[in-house]
Amino acid sequence: MNAREVLASYYVHANDGDWDSWCDLFADDMVMDEQLAGRVEGREKLRSMMTGMGEMYASFENLPRHFLVDADGEEAAVVSHISARSSSGKPIEADVMNYFHIRDGRITYMANFHDTQPFQVLSQS
Q: Left (φ > 0), alpha (ψ -120 to 50) or beta: where does 63 sit?
């Protein structure tokens, strides 16, 4: 897959709640700097973390607004918006910017940037 296909799949799988397929988009030795979870190293660690997503959220939707991919197809940024509900039904709305490094059809590095305030309802659920 090229970078645009990887990114499109990333959001389709996330919005479908198919976290196993979502994790398959990452390289074995991936690194993620995630604002809420901190630094995550390795796809299997990421996969084990994602098993709890269904319990944290009653609903989760991450809709991309803009895709920016460099000419080599190895670096990308996506601006998106998350609309979700915590397991107790509290709403979450957040604008997000994700940075990706993609090599050989897999995400090798990802960082996300968003306001953490809306996600505080997760700790209150």
A: beta
Quick one: DSSP state of residue 104?
Answer: T
Which pLDDT score is estimated for 116?
A: 75
d(CA 59, CA 97) in angstroms, rounded, equals: 20
**Identity at 114, one-letter amino acid code:** H
Tokens of 40: 């995550």
Going edge to edge, which strands form the sheet with 106-114? 38-41, 26-34, 106-114, 91-103, 75-86, 57-69
Least confident of 1-5, 27-31, 108-112: 1-5
Where along the chain do its domains lie? 3-124
In CATH terms, the fold of domain 3-124 is: Nuclear Transport Factor 2; Chain: A, (3.10.450)
CA 61 to CA 39: how far, in whole Å?
23
Mean per-residue pLDDT for 36-44? Answer: 92
